[in-house]
Amino acid sequence: QKGGYDTFMEKEIHEQPYVLSETLRGRVDNDVRMDELKEININWEKLERVYFLACGTALNAASFAQDLFRQWVPACPSFALAASEFRYGNYYLNSDTLCIFVSQSGETADTLAALQLAKEKQAKTLSIVNVLGSSLARKSDCTLYTCAGPEIAVASTKAYTTQLVLLVCLMIALSEKLGCQPKDVSKLMADLKRIPEITKDMLAQQEIVKDYAQCLKDQKDAYFIGRRLDYFSVVEGALKLKEVSYVHADAYIAGELKHGPIALIDKGTVVIALATQEEVASKTISNIEETIARGANVILITTQYQDTHAFQKVLRIPDVHPALAAIPAAILLQLFAYYGAVLKGCDVDKPRNLAKSVTVE
Ligand code: M6R
């Protein structure tokens, strides 16, 4: 059942090249194919706002999508919100609102409650779901399926990266419908097709990641930092680490460090820094240097082009459109959490206090 791997989490991390190519199958050519959108009875020209609603890892994917939508369709406000908060926030909803729900199981109670509210207010509903025929899929106007296959380990890995690629495709399709276009769209399309290969290359770095994860041995805390899209990736990286290894992990916007969190950085503090977004990479690097000056033990994940002479532990992602850098970065962060948990002797597939599907609010 575990296909020769020690755990389901490890198996599922390694399945990503395949499930990503399944999720992308038939979607990307010269443009993005998303015929399912026809099922939504909406006048796209009148679209007033978009909400992305989800929990946990799926919320991290949703926040990433919100950022892309804001970049590519700046005229239409978009908000990513924890589904558990949605019912209590008095959010503006009407029939020209699109609510996008993201969920692996399609059975998360908080997400279903958010869907129910959206429907009561006549908002249009679209779900990104992994489990065929799940409640969320049945109750939404339109469903896009990730093709991750069954995800057994409690910690979400392959469901997350398939959500990311499908959300990128959806954001491209929506931006086109709304008369906008992502920056460097032809590179974006070409790189989307390369994602399964890129993912394979990332998995090939597992021994280096395993070695770097040794730094967690005597640590109770780890800090993850990044800017722009990298921030959502580090939030997910921190969630993964705390779930499976019980190491206390926090994620910060790198520019926020100096406004408080840097007080936590001391000799040997583990800092995992992500600098894949060219427009802010140099600023992130100088924030990281501030942590090194205070004795932090830094692991830097960055692009092929970044000058890294000041860093001892570096992992590189290949040349890829910035909107897709989150996917190779996720593989490295998942491996880091996995090896950290193994090092600490944790039951990676069944972390304490957690259930695969949370069916209570
Ligand atoms: O099935 P869902 O995607 O709706 O589940 C949402 C969260 O409960 C889930 O992502 C949870 O955070 C995972 N354990 C993360 O690894």
Automatic annotation (TrEMBL):
Protein name: Glutamine--fructose-6-phosphate aminotransferase [isomerizing]
Function field: Catalyzes the first step in hexosamine metabolism, converting fructose-6P into glucosamine-6P using glutamine as a nitrogen source.
Record keywords, A-Z: Aminotransferase, Cytoplasm, Glutamine amidotransferase, Membrane, Repeat, Transferase, Transmembrane, Transmembrane helix
Catalysed conversion reaction: D-fructose 6-phosphate + L-glutamine = D-glucosamine 6-phosphate + L-glutamate
Transmembrane region(s): 323-342
Subunit structure comment from the entry: Homodimer.
Cell compartment(s), UniProt: Cytoplasm
Organism: Faecalicoccus pleomorphus
GO cellular component: cytosol
Gene Ontology BP annotations: carbohydrate metabolic process; fructose 6-phosphate metabolic process; protein N-linked glycosylation; UDP-N-acetylglucosamine metabolic process
Stretch of the intact protein here: 244 to 604 of 604
Limits of the SIS domain: 33-180, 212-351
